[in-house]
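@channel anyone free to eyeball this complex?
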Amino acid sequence: MPLLVMKFGGTSVADLDRIRNAAQKVKREVERGYDVIVIVSAMSGKTNELVGWVEQTSPLFDAREYDAVVSSGENVTAGLMALTLQEMEVPARSWQGWQVPINTTAQHSAARFESIPRANLDQKFAEGFKVAVVAGFQGLAPDGRITTLGRGGSDTTAVAFAAAFEAERCDIYTDVDGVYTTDPRITSKARKLERIAFEEMLELASLGAKVLQTRSVELAMRYNVRLRVLSSFEDTDETSGTLVCDEEEIMESKVVSGVAFSRDEAKITLVTVEDRPGISAAIFAPLAEGGVNVDMIVQNISEKDYEDHPGSVTDMTFSCPINQVERAKKAMEDARRAGTIQYEELIVDTDVAKVSVVGIGMRSHAGVAARMFRALADENINIKVISTSEIKISVLIDRKYMELAVQALHDAFELEKTA
Amino acid sequence: MPLLVMKFGGTSVADLDRIRNAAQKVKREVERGYDVIVIVSAMSGKTNELVGWVEQTSPLFDAREYDAVVSSGENVTAGLMALTLQEMEVPARSWQGWQVPINTTAQHSAARFESIPRANLDQKFAEGFKVAVVAGFQGLAPDGRITTLGRGGSDTTAVAFAAAFEAERCDIYTDVDGVYTTDPRITSKARKLERIAFEEMLELASLGAKVLQTRSVELAMRYNVRLRVLSSFEDTDETSGTLVCDEEEIMESKVVSGVAFSRDEAKITLVTVEDRPGISAAIFAPLAEGGVNVDMIVQNISEKDYEDHPGSVTDMTFSCPINQVERAKKAMEDARRAGTIQYEELIVDTDVAKVSVVGIGMRSHAGVAARMFRALADENINIKVISTSEIKISVLIDRKYMELAVQALHDAFELEKTA
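replying in thread with the prediction:
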């Protein structure tokens, strides 16, 4: 029997009506001949309520007990979804993490999958059950305590089940109808992609596209699980949404698939830093310890050699989320006081945004960067920092030009047209 | 290490402040040198919310899924209680039913205990944990599904743990401060009992006293678990509340310990029923099948022998809760149509109440019934039905005299005085 994994997020199961709506979609796949594993999140708001209680009770909470409390929202949805399916005469059974079992590491609140043995669910399918409803986001530690996977863990649960059960596809039902070339609120020319490669989706997810959690895309890529993102709130069929898949499944790919952006960036420059081996480690180790997520890094090539700085010196610039600027400043000032780094000045620019173009086609096409910089130059947008990967080019620009830059790049790479 | 079981009901853990208050009481017992097993209910209202969702989803719900959903409220409280104790520097760990494990039968929503192996909790106590917080009301079926014990099951969980772990005592914290000779709202002379025998408590519970669930008292009696009922909302010490215990622990017992009453009773009389072997079964079997909880039964001794009824005939009277009268009428009319019973008339009296006196002292004292009937006669209260057990006498009277009857009996047996 072919098998599908279908995942419904918190807004898709927010109340009994929405659970019924989701169950209808499951029933349709059963009627098409699939066995289905349904992964459910907690009803929206429930997990936040539980987290709030834990944090109020114990600010430095024991992660074991946090996991025991916070995982309970998914259990409720799993049972209600199984009941709803039964009412529609679809034989269904709910499964909590320990019942499957979903074996994970003991890293509470951030556990990773170890194994998902198939025996228990396979037996139920063999008995005639058509649907297994599994509580997402949770697992079982080696010592028998409940674990959770961290926020967004239900997407990852879905992909892990699709891999373990060799599912034909893993359908992620959410509140948007697919992955777009860029945010439709920025340009009406934004187009829904029919397909996107794992690597591209990974870049978009890490650039802030909230459609899929980064870890779930990584896992899908590793096990080659075909992921489909589609809307819970529309009538959907087998061609709906966006398929995230291996690039071999994408026949004709454009050079650039999408334009991503991140509004809340900050740029920090350390002026006149000693240029010596180990200086990068001396700067970035305290930032990491201080909880600063450094994104782009640029070291100026221009050397300075002033009278009062007889050695070789340089400027070091990096970017981070705007709400981490204070932490970054503190980490740098502490390191300067401790004598592990020296700098003349620390300049913070909190009026920047990041804009990126992403596409696997870049690998085989030269000139993407040139075309990108030309498009920005034509709009008189100054580029402050550049960083590139194999399939991505990101630039930091003044925030006030962000929308304009996205629109200009969307036009320049003709993303409104299909390949 | 001596061990205590402490159980907190829904109102005692209704919010984070109350959980903290309950945790203080646990901490005090730990400081006195006890290991403690804490049994918690769901925060009040939570279980009703979950039951509502299940019933809305599926009116004829699958009890397995009902149990999976409804048990989650206790899991939340158990985790929050463990966190609260940790904040107070009491080493504590939460336990869900499957983790202990609490092995039960597979009767979902009404499961019964099979066994509670001690190994897992004993190991944690040996590691230095002082408190095990166990989610009440739930267990694990032989096939690995979650069960629940039915309403009030947390009391029963507490007693079962006290029996399995040979606890010194099982303290049931609730919203009243003990067991009274009668409801203080009926007479201000009502007095809190220091001790009451299991058998008496059992009669009072089955007569509608809501302090303890009948099943928990049965279990306590069978395993001789000393139960103490006391208030969550007052400062309590080792002499607080009421101890429910073996009658041997009660030195000087009064003849009557308490007066119970039940307001919502109805009396049904079948007039001119054929008096033959098997007639009782023919009447009460369809009532039981129809879900009618028959309480008192009286068969008139007076025989009738009319012309049109050549055989021996009688009248049959029984009582049941007032909200089951329609069911009872339907069961009787169906049986008459089916020809399994005959009667001339069915008379319903919905203006009755039941008043009972309970006391183990009755066994060794004659004249309790006479004293009871005399007290009622002195107030001109007519007795409609009488039923007795070894330690209880119940009468059905007009509802308007109920309060008066309770007051008169409380006075007649001098319950305001200690033994």
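from a first look: The mean pLDDT of chain B is 91.
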